[in-house]
Amino acid sequence: MLLALTAIVATIRAPSSPVSIVVPYSSVPVQDSDLDGNPLTGAWSDGVTADLPLENGEASSLGSVTLTAKHDGVNVFFRVQGKIDVQWQSSSGNHFWFGLMYGPATIAGHHKSGQDGIFFGESVYTSSPPLLPVDTNGGGKPPAVDASQDNLGEMKTSGTSAPFDFTAEWKRRLDTGDSQDVTFVADGNAACNFYATTDSDGGGSGGGAVSHNAVTNDNVMRFAVSQQTNGTPQAIGVSHIPPKGVTPGSQIYLTAVLTNATAAMITWRNSTMATDETVPMTNLSTQSGTGWNYAAYLPAQLSPTQVRYSINASNRQTFRSESYFLTVAVVVQAGVTPGQQTTWVLTVAAIVTMVLCVMAVSYVYVGRRLKREGK
Amino acid sequence: MVDPRVVHAITVEMCTGFLLLGCVAVFVKVIADAWVKYFGKRPTRLTDLAIKASRFAEPASFFGLLAGVLVTFVSMVTGSLAWPVDQLMASTTAHNKIMTTVTTQTVFIGAVLIRGKFHEDVWTTKSTKTLYVVMVLAGLILLTLQNSVAGHLAGKGSILDDFFHSVGIDTTKMWLFPDWASMLIIAAFPIAALLAILLIRRQSNTVRPTATPG
Known about the structure:
The complex is a heterodimer of chains A (about 375) and B (about 210).
Chain A lengths: L1 H10 L8 E4 L24 E6 L10 E8 L3 E10 L12 E8 L11 E5 L13 E4 L6 E2 L6 E7 L5 E10 L18 E8 L19 E5 L13 E3 L12 E8 L3 E7 L7 E4 L1 E7 L2 E8 L6 E10 L4 E10 L9 H35 L3
Chain B lengths: L3 H36 L5 H38 L2 H5 L2 H27 L7 H28 L7 H6 L12 H28 L8
Helix pairs in contact in B: 1-2, 1-5, 2-4, 4-5
């Protein structure tokens, strides 16, 4: 009995309070390859760590996560380690999601219009592993998917019995340039409200008992001022925007404008590759401003993934490398197919027929009943 | 020029308001009648109030339902002007909205026709009264669902989202029957309704009026 009580007490954690954190500046970024859902990899030791309460209100270890965060003046890096009652097995079987929504200080509360978000494992967005981040915005339930996906990372689960461990790691630019994203200002002052939660009991999840919305914790984060000293202009300029809407099965065409470069190549890997591959960039012999247009093809990806790549440009004196990523995803069917349209017309016709029949029977019944009463 | 969406918003508020008035008035009448029936033996101020409420609620409910049904037709027109047809046809939420609106409207039209034809007599027998109230209640539930879907269409969400989530209703996915089920319903329900009507008539004809002493 005593042992059982001890075990129960050991697994129950007092709900933690809302947190207020300052995300520190770090000159050492977390490498893209380390944003893999494995908590053992990556340069996380100089980030801020906080015990973050979840909106699911669970009193056990399922009710909070450990958040680690830092930024390098360009990107902000997040790692969330927590526990959940089901493994992510399939979108039709056991699965769960982790989501984090953030917004400016003027918008407080769970799930509000104007908030930016990131979701891992929500089966409305993700049909199968890898559990890649989905950039969302707005107060819809679930929120709308951003046209521009600006998060790089992955969530993984581990363990053999409940509660299972999960780790989500991702990065995004402080300022993504996307009007649908909240901009993080690294001035040590601008506050940003944020709300994290998990769900496993249905509604983008299934098989578990965690409901995502029980409490509201107004967590606040600020971003420390960048201490970047390396302001020396690079001799080589790289101007590149990762392509959007890349789908599985299509070659990936990358273009860049390189200034003062004589050669360039791309090193890349997808989320399942262990090592980088290299492809050369070709000078297209067309000028763009002060630079030249370069292009390269990456091989078609067979399934949804995230491709991390670096453009490595060089001349005789110097060298410059810039990292990027892009998301390969099946295009979510926008609109309604002709087949669905037909099925919908039939459904409406069926419902109206049903209601009309009930109404007709009711009408006749009322008439006869009142007639019987002599009305 | 006035934005068509503003006009649509006004008509939506009007039809929802009228229908809500009609439903609330029906429920007021049910409660008032129940009060008079069970506690009305001794005249009290509450009993007087219930009698008055019942008297006013009945015509108010008919007015609310009738006006609501009429303004809903106007709202359908303003809605089709406010939202481009191709945009509506591309949205699963819009499909759900149209479906729930058509269903709600059909239920309320049924209630209005019955009340319009049989007047206050609907309230004179227990079974017809129950049928009428259930019909209005069904309309109210559908109206609530319809307006929640409309919240999503307007990009605002709905305060009922968490409730719908808890009962497994996803307003963003298209609600569809399998084709075979729709066909079956379209074929079977009219036949079943016809049989039910024949049965009601037959039963009604076999019931003899009570013989009066000669």
